[in-house]
Design goal:
Blueprint: E1 2-8, E2 20-27, H1 30-38, E3 47-49, E4 55-56, E5 65-68, E6 73-78, E7 82-88, H2 93-102, E8 127-128, E9 131-132, E10 137-144, E11 149-154, H3 155-158, E12 175-185, H4 195-203, H5 211-225, E13 233-237, E14 243-245, H6 246-255, E15 262-263, E16 268-270, H7 273-279, E17 286-287, E18 290-292, E19 299-302, H8 308-326, E20 335-336
Helix pairs in contact: 4-5
The chain binds uridine-diphosphate-2(N-acetylglucosaminyl) butyric acid (EPU).
């Protein structure tokens, strides 16, 4: 088993914070988890890192960390209409998307270029450009650290919501996801409803887009708005888009007609956190090592040489300011350690 002692977590978080881990254990197969269970490992506190793309490290980590790197792409079932593919939790998400695009398996092309690994995708039900993981999700396998048994979860059991699932709620800290099975369509199903995609395709004079055209358009849009973590530390959207009472949204809209409102139910609506942050004057804000991305107000960035606590401080200030100005609470999407 690959275990490193007193090692830097710099390579394992896309914000690029250099904190120390007392012990980092790389998990490359399911049997390792069983061995750890048999040795009583799960009786003491520990943590799990997957792609490290939704993680803010504010301190050195004393508890042992499991770095999930279980590989594997296995086609489990195929009909004329769909394929079921099981992906090891450690597979890179974007590489998976490209694999599906190449094979004409429809369903995740709108989620091109999302950083991270497959195993973390169900935890917050990742999504972009009109598609969410739940739309293509078939099932997953997870190790129950209390019983030492592997369990299967279907769509319903995962209780997916907007950037939410069972694994962020009741299941939190109780399971380690080892593989995820996706159900992808072999019949062309293109979703370009999301405004930005349409525009990107129109600009390229594409009227009948292929799966590759859509993936390329999404990659282009993301590259134009979202910073590349390899160049500028970030964890994508730092906040969730808040779901608020329709009456409050309409009150805000009365003063700000440019506010976009997305219906969630009769009483509830979702509004863009990026809009609230921008209107509060934070877009492009810079202070020593950290700031708010100039092209997307939802993304907090680390210019290098800083500390996670500086991002946390900035995020808290934004939260307070938005609450004071709009009476809306912004919830963090990112996990803080
Ligand atoms: N907007 C602003 N200012 C900005 C950016 C956006 O006012 O600086 C407003 C605009 O009105 C825009 C609206 O916000 O129409 C929505 O913006 P955008 O389409 O860029 O999406 P988002 O709501 O900011 C969400 C996801 C992203 C995902 C995009 C595209 C969340 C928390 N974020 O962002 O996911 O890529 O939609 O589908 O739901 C991530 O989770 O890390 C992530 C990047």
């Amino acid at each position: 088993m690959l275990s490193e002692v007193n090692t830097s977590l710099l390579p394992y978080n896309t914000f690029g914070f250099d904190v120390q881990a007392t012990e980092l254990i790389k998990i490359e197969n399911k049997e390792q988890l069983v061995n750890l269970y048999e040795n009583g490992f799960f009786k003491s506190p520990f943590r799990v890192i997957s792609g490290g793309s939704n993680l803010l490290l504010t301190q050195n980590i004393q508890e042992p960390i499991l770095l999930i790197r279980i590989p594997g792409i296995t086609q489990k079932e195929e009909t004329d209409g769909y394929v079921l593919i099981e992906f090891g939790a450690g597979e890179n998400w974007h590489a998976t998307v490209l694999h599906c695009v190449k094979n004409q398996f429809f369903g995740i092309e709108n989620m091109s270029l999302i950083p991270g690994c497959i195993g973390a995708a169900p935890i917050q039900n990742i999504g972009a450009y009109g598609t969410e993981l739940k739309d293509v999700f078939h099932s997953l396998s997870a190790y129950n650290i209390q019983t030492g048994k592997f369990e299967n979860f279907d769509l319903q059991q995962c209780q997916f919501g907007y950037r939410d699932s069972f694994f962020k709620q009741q299941g939190k800290g109780k399971y380690i996801i080892t593989s995820v099975t996706l159900k992808l369509s072999k019949i062309a199903k293109i979703n370009t409803q999301y405004g930005d995609i349409q525009n990107a395709l129109i600009q390229k004079n594409i009227t009948n887009p292929t799966i590759k055209d859509v993936s390329d358009a999404v990659i282009e849009i993301r590259k134009s708005k979202l910073p590349d973590p390899a160049i500028l530390g970030n964890s994508g959207s730092f906040f969730k888009n808040p779901v608020i009472e329709k009456s409050l949204a309409e009150k805000i809209q009365a003063n700000h007609p440019d506010l976009k409102i997305f219906p969630v139910s009769d009483e509830w609506v979702k509004i863009p956190a990026a809009w609230l942050i921008e209107k509060s004057g934070w877009k492009g804000h810079k202070r020593s090592h950290v700031g708010v991305h100039e092209k997307q107000a939802l993304v907090l960035v680390h210019y290098g040489g800083g500390k996670g606590s500086e991002i946390q401080q900035l995020a808290t200030e934004i939260q307070t300011d938005v609450a004071n100005k709009f009476n809306v609470h912004l919830e963090f999407e990112v996990n803080i350690w």
